[in-house]
Amino acid sequence: MDANTDRAVTAIETAAGEGADLVALPEIFNVGYFAFDAYQREAEALDGPTLTRIRDAARENDVAVLAGSVVEDLAATDGGPADEGLANTSVLFDSSGDRLLAYRKHHLFGYESAEARMLVPGEDVPTADLDGFTVGVTTCYDLRFPELYRDLADAGVDLVLVPSAWPYPRVEHWKTLPRARAIENLAYVATINGSGSFEDATLLGRSTVYDPWGTPIATTDDDPDIVTADVSSDHVAETRAEFPALRDRRR
Does Chloroplast count among this protein's keywords (predicted)? Predict the structure, then answer.
């Protein structure tokens, strides 16, 4: 836990030093997604030790940070989806360390995974204004459910951050689904995936930023890395003005 959080803080410092305005971390970056036997032991409140360190790193480095995600102890949270249990929760901090939103993963993975049995699904789809963007968050398996992204588009979101722990062998799914979500909603979609091996799985990395046309504008391979991209809310507005797909929807 401490070593993983140390790596996250170092990555935040490095990215901020290279001029980043927003840094996003992968799904369950502190415990490790597949370390299910540690979830209960390492769960924390929204002001717990991991999120406090990430909040402090955001403030000290003058950079917004998505701590995406940690295992949240819902018994320590007011207003969550349940009075007890665990959630897969991403928290967005601004550059002052203020918490802008907390998103709890909606769609819990049940395919050869303990997640659906262990966690409580989220209910809210929060958004936040950040440096001219309306930002939303989804998590990993959520990519397979386009209606969630429509809800975000209807809320005015033009940048979706997707912390993930996507494993081999589903490489083509990982490349296709976020690209489709970007194209459908004429929005930036930034996927932030883990890298490394567990006893039963290997994460495939390939964190990628897609622009509103679905074009990958920054990506990496399966090794640990920092991916950077320049994004523009004006580009989203111009794309939506030029191409009428959202206006042409029929219900």
Answer: no
Active site residues per annotation: 27, 105, 140
> Mind listing the pLDDT tens digit for each residue in 172-198?
999 999 999 999 999 999 999 999 988
**Measuring CA to CA, how many Å separate 174 from each of 37, 179, 181?**
26, 9, 11
CA dihedral 61, 140, 202, 57 (to 10 degrees): 10
Rounded to whole angstroms, what are the CA distances from 194 to 24, 25, 75, 243? 11, 8, 27, 34
Q: Give per-residue burial for 112-138: e unless 16+ CB within 10 Å, then b.
A: ebebeeebbebeebbbbebeebbbbbb
pTM of the model: 0.97
Q: Which fold has domain 2-242?
A: Nitrilase/N-carbamoyl-D-aminoacid amidohydrolase (3.60.110)
Give the domain ranges of the chain.
2-242
